[in-house]
Design a protein that fits this description.
21% of the residues lie in helices and 36% in strands. The protein is of the alpha+beta class. The strands form 2 sheets. A 4-stranded antiparallel β-sheet has the order 2-1-5-6. Strands 3-4 form a two-stranded antiparallel ribbon. The protein binds zinc ion (ZN).
């Protein structure tokens, strides 16, 4: 398993997040046509069609490339959290 870090909005901490070894998860690629796996759902997508995750980060704090649907879900979760803070 590859160990990533996932931001927990409620706790405001990173928690360990594992993905299978054969998933190609990237925070950066020079090749926009490279096939990567979305670290949320595992779907294979081109790097160029991905969004930078707000939740799943490298040890250095860079967001992994996630698919459009999962990015939309992340944004909803973040919005919900922000509303709770008010
Ligand atoms: Zn996804």
């Amino acid at each position: 398993m590859k160990m990533l870090r996932r931001w927990n909005y409620d706790e405001q901490v990173y928690e360990p997040y594992e993905v299978p070894d054969d998933w190609n998860v990237k925070s950066y690629s020079e090749d926009m046509d490279e096939i990567v796996n979305c670290p949320h759902c595992g779907r294979k997508v081109t790097f160029g069609s991905c969004y930078t995750s707000k939740k799943i980060h490298t040890a250095g704090g860079f967001g992994y490339a996630v698919c459009g649907e999962c990015y939309a879900t992340e944004r909803i979760k973040e919005e919900e959290w922000r509303k709770k803070q008010r």
